[in-house]
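Progress note, sequence design subtask.
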């Protein structure tokens, strides 16, 4: 940036604008990558939660006798976590 005494203004070279645009594109590119990765990780976590969770409210609606809920939950845990 240089000072122009005739017009009493500052002159900004084109290279500064190019560097600013390049930096902006670099930051935007990595921000898009970060957001895409965060969305992908969220989907993986949702799938994990659905696969390894036992929803007592839903299961209670499906069975006739509420006393069998505990046994059903234990069998679900045995099937899912086999170690």
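Output:
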């Amino acid at each position: 940036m240089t000072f122009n005494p005739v017009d009493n203004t500052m002159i900004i070279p084109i290279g500064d604008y190019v560097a600013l645009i390049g930096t902006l594109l670099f930051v935007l590119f990595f921000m898009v990558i970060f957001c895409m990765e965060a969305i992908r990780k969220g989907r993986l976590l949702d799938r994990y939660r659905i696969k390894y969770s036992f929803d007592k409210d839903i299961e209670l609606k499906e069975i006739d006798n509420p006393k069998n809920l505990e046994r059903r939950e234990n069998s679900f845990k045995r099937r899912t976590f086999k170690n």
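The first helix runs from residue 14 to 51. Work on this subtask will continue into the next period as scheduled.
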